[in-house]
C-alpha cells in the first residue's frame, strides 16, 4: 500500500510542475497544490495506513481477544483441548465478589499513590536544585541521575536484590553500623511492608531522574524578565517561585504526574522479578495478580477478566488527564 | 546575588549526597562484578576493589546459551525499532504536515495506544500467538515490541517533523523537487538526530521487555536477556559476583547509548510526546 503513496507523489508531480513553471514561485506552489487535488487527498491516509494496520492487529485485536477470553471458562483442560466454553459474566462475578480482588485493588491504589507522591516531590525538589547549582555541580548531579535513569529495569532489580541481600548486603551492613543492630541479618523480602519498601525505593530511584531533568529543562525556559519584574515588585525567592516559576511549570507537573501514575500502576518487572509478588502473594498489584491468576494458576479466563478490570481502573484514574489531553489537541488544531 | 555561606554550601552538599545515592547502585553493580569472591562475601563491604578479576564475567559469558540470548535480544530489539521508525516516519509526516479529516482522531488514537497496558494484555496475546502456532518464536515478539514502541516513536517524530520549518520544504519544491524528494533531501537529514534520539527509547523498551517474553517463549534458546538475567541468581545459587557481571553486561549497551543520546532525547520526549 505505501507504494501507492510514492506513486502519487513522484509520478504525478513533475508533469504538473513543468506545466506551471512559468507562473512564478508563489503561484507554482499554490497551483500545484490545487491541481494535485483528489489524488493528494488520499496521501495522508496512505501514509498512516501501516501505523493504523499495526495498531489494529497488534493492539486492537489483543484487546478484543482479552474481552472475549474474560467471558470464557478457560483453564488448563480447555486450553490443551482447544475448547471454548462461554460462561457469561461468571468470571467478573467471581472476581468482583471476592475480598481478595478488592484487597489487591486497594493495595495497588495505595502503592501507586505512595510512589507517585514520592517521585513528584523528590523529582521537583531535585529539578529546582539543579536549576540553582553551579555548572560543575549540576553536571555531577545530572550524571548520577542519568545513570539511574538509564539502568535497565531488570538489571536494576537484580542490583537491588544484591543491595538488600540478607547476607553480605550493603544496606543491612550500613543499618547495623548506624546502630540498628537488629537489621544486621534482616530479610527484606520476608514481609509485605519491607518488600514494598524495596520496590518503592527502586521505582522512585528509577523515576525521579525523568521528572527532575525535565523539570530542570522546563525552568530554563522561564523568561528572565519575569523574575526581574517580580523582584522589582518586591518579591522574595519564595513569592517569585509561587508567582513565576510554579505557574510556568504547572502544565508540565500535571502531565508528568499522570504519566507517572500510569507507569507505576502498570509496574510489572520490578515487583515480579524481585519476589514474584511474595511473600504469600501479599505484594501482588493488579497486573501481577492478573498474571499469577491467569498464567500461574492457569485460570486464563479469570486472568483476562482481572486484566480487563485493571484496564478499567486505570482508565478511571487517568480519565481526567485523558480528557485534558484530548481537549488540548482540539485547541491546537 | 548575596548569599550566606550556608546558602552556598547546602545546595552543593545536597548535590554530592544525591549523586552518591543515585550513582551508587550502578557503581556497586560494576564494583561487585570485578571483585574477587572473597571481597564480595566479606563481613565488611570492600568499597573500592583493589584486586580486580574477570572471573565473574567469564562465568556469565560461558553460561548456557548466553550468546544465543544475546543474538535474540539484539535481533528482536534492532528489528523492532527499525520497523517502528519506518512506519512512524511515514505517519508522522502525514500528521505533522498535512491537513485532512480525522487527523485529530488519529493523534488521539496513538496517544491512547501509547498508554496501552501491555503488562495486563499478555494473557490475550499468549492465546493469539498460541492459536497461530507461533510460541517460542522471535517473530511475534518482534512484532509486539514494534507496536509497543510505535506510538511514542510516532508522536515524538511528529514533533521533530513539525519543528523543521515548512519554508525549507517549500523552497526545495520551488527549486523543482517533488514533495517526496523534498522530504528525502531536506527534511530527512535534519531529522537524523531526532531519529537517533527517538530510537533510544525504543531500544530501551524492547531491550528491557520482560512480561511478554516470560509468557511466550518458554524454550531457553528462544528467550531474551532480561528473562535470563532475572533467573540468573537462582540458577547460579546466589553467586552475586557472576550475577552482577551478567547485569553489567546487560546494562552496558543501554548505559552507553543513553549517555550519548540523552540530551537530545529529553527535549524530544518533552516536545513531542508528553506535551502532546
TrEMBL record, chain A:
Where does this protein have compositionally biased stretches of type Low complexity? 23-35
- Write out the annotated subcellular location: Cell membrane
* UniProt name for this protein: N,N'-diacetylchitobiose transport system permease protein
Membrane topology of this protein: Multi-pass membrane protein
Classification lineage: Bacteria, Bacillati, Actinomycetota, Actinomycetes, Kitasatosporales
Any one Gene Ontology BP term: transmembrane transport
| Entry superkingdom | Bacteria
According to the record, the segments passing through the membrane are 45-64, 109-130, 139-163, 193-217, 252-272, 300-322
Keywords from the UniProt entry = Cell membrane, Membrane, Transmembrane, Transmembrane helix, Transport
TrEMBL record, chain B:
Name the GO terms of the biological process aspect.
transmembrane transport
Looking at the UniProt entry, the stretches that span the membrane are 12-30, 74-95, 107-129, 141-161, 182-207, 240-261
* Topology relative to the membrane: Multi-pass membrane protein
> PROSITE patterns, from UniProt?
ABC_TM1
Residues forming the ABC transmembrane type-1 domain are 70-261
Which UniProt keywords are listed?
A: Cell membrane, Membrane, Transmembrane, Transmembrane helix, Transport
Q: Name one Pfam family in it.
A: BPD_transp_1
User: Mind telling me which InterPro entries this protein's record contains?
Assistant: BP-dep_ABC_trans_perm, MetI-like, MetI-like_sf
Q: Does the keyword Kinase apply?
A: no
- Transmembrane helix among the record's keywords? yes
One GO CC annotation: plasma membrane
Where in the cell is the protein located?
A: Cell membrane
In terms of one coarse class, where is the protein primarily found?
Answer: membrane
The family annotation for this protein states: Belongs to the binding-protein-dependent transport system permease family.
Name recorded for this polypeptide: N,N'-diacetylchitobiose transport system permease protein
Q: Which organism is it from?
A: Streptomyces griseoloalbus
Amino acid at each position: 500500500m505505501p507504494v501507492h503513496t510514492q506513486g502519487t507523489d513522484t509520478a504525478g508531480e513533475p508533469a504538473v510542475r513543468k506545466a506551471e513553471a512559468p507562473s512564478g514561485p508563489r503561484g507554482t506552489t499554490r497551483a500545484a497544490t490545487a491541481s494535485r487535488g483528489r489524488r493528494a487527498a488520499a496521501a495522508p491516509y496512505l501514509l498512516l495506513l501501516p501505523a493504523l494496520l499495526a495498531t489494529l492487529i497488534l493492539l486492537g485485536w489483543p484487546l478484543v481477544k482479552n474481552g472475549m477470553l474474560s467471558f470464557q471458562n478457560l483453564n488448563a483442560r480447555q486450553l490443551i483441548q482447544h475448547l471454548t466454553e462461554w460462561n457469561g459474566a461468571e468470571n467478573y462475578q467471581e472476581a468482583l465478589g471476592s475480598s481478595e480482588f478488592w484487597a489487591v485493588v486497594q493495595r495497588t491504589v495505595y502503592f501507586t499513590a505512595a510512589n507517585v507522591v514520592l517521585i513528584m516531590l523528590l523529582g521537583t525538589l531535585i529539578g529546582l536544585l539543579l536549576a540553582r547549582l553551579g555548572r560543575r555541580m549540576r553536571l555531577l548531579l545530572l550524571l548520577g541521575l542519568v545513570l539511574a535513569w538509564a539502568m535497565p529495569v531488570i538489571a536494576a532489580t537484580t542490583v537491588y536484590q544484591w543491595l538488600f541481600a540478607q547476607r553480605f548486603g550493603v544496606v543491612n551492613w550500613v543499618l547495623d553500623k548506624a546502630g540498628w543492630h537488629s537489621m544486621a541479618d534482616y530479610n527484606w523480602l520476608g514481609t509485605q511492608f519491607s518488600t514494598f519498601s524495596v520496590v518503592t525505593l527502586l521505582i522512585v530511584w528509577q523515576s525521579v531522574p525523568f521528572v527532575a531533568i525535565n523539570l530542570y529543562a522546563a525552568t530554563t525556559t522561564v523568561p528572565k524578565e519575569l523574575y526581574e519584574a517580580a523582584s522589582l515588585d518586591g518579591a522574595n525567592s519564595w513569592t517569585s517561585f509561587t508567582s513565576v516559576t510554579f505557574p510556568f511549570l504547572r502544565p508540565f507537573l500535571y502531565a508528568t504526574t499522570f504519566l507517572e501514575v500510569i507507569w507505576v500502576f502498570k509496574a510489572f518487572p520490578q515487583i515480579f522479578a524481585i519476589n514474584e509478588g511474595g511473600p504469600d502473594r501479599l505484594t501482588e498489584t493488579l497486573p501481577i495478580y492478573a498474571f499469577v491468576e491467569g498464567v500461574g494458576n492457569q485460570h486464563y479466563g479469570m486472568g483476562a477478566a482481572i486484566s480487563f478490570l485493571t484496564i478499567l481502573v486505570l482508565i478511571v484514574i487517568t480519565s481526567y488527564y485523558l480528557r485534558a489531553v484530548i481537549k488540548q489537541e482540539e485547541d491546537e488544531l | 546575588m548575596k548569599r550566606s555561606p550556608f546558602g552556598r554550601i547546602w545546595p552543593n552538599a545536597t548535590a554530592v549526597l544525591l549523586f552518591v545515592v543515585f550513582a551508587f547502585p550502578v557503581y556497586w553493580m560494576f564494583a561487585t562484578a570485578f571483585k574477587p569472591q572473597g571481597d564480595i562475601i566479606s563481613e565488611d563491604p570492600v568499597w573500592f576493589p583493589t584486586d580486580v578479576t574477570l572471573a565473574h564475567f567469564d562465568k556469565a559469558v560461558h553460561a548456557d546459551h548466553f550468546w544465543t540470548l544475546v543474538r535474540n535480544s539484539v535481533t528482536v530489539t534492532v528489528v523492532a525499532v527499525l520497523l517502528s521508525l519506518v512506519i512512524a516516519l511515514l505517519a508522522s509526516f502525514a500528521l505533522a504536515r498535512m491537513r485532512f479529516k480525522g487527523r485529530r482522531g488519529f493523534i488521539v488514537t496513538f496517544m491512547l495506544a501509547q498508554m496501552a497496558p501491555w503488562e495486563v494484555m499478555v494473557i490475550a496475546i499468549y492465546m493469539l500467538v498460541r492459536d497461530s502456532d507461533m510460541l517460542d518464536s522471535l517473530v511475534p515478539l518482534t512484532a509486539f515490541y514494534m507496536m509497543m514502541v510505535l506510538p511514542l516513536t510516532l508522536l515524538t517524530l511528529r514533533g521533530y517533523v513539525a519543528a523543521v520549518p515548512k519554508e525549507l520544504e517549500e523552497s526545495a519544491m520551488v527549486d523543482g523537487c517533488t514533495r517526496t524528494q523534498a522530504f528525502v533531501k531536506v527534511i530527512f537529514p535534519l531529522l537524523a538526530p531526532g531519529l537517533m534520539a527517538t530510537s533510544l527509547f525504543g531500544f530501551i523498551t524492547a531491550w528491557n521487555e520482560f512480561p511478554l517474553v516470560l509468557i511466550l517463549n518458554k524454550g531457553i534458546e528462544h528467550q531474551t536477556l532480561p528473562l535470563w538475567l532475572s533467573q540468573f541468581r537462582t540458577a547460579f545459587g546466589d553467586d552475586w559476583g557472576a550475577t552482577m557481571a551478567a547485569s553489567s553486561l546487560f546494562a552496558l549497551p543501554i548505559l552507553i547509548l543513553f549517555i550519548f543520546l540523552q540530551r537530545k532525547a529529553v527535549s524530544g520526549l518533552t516536545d513531542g510526546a508528553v506535551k502532546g
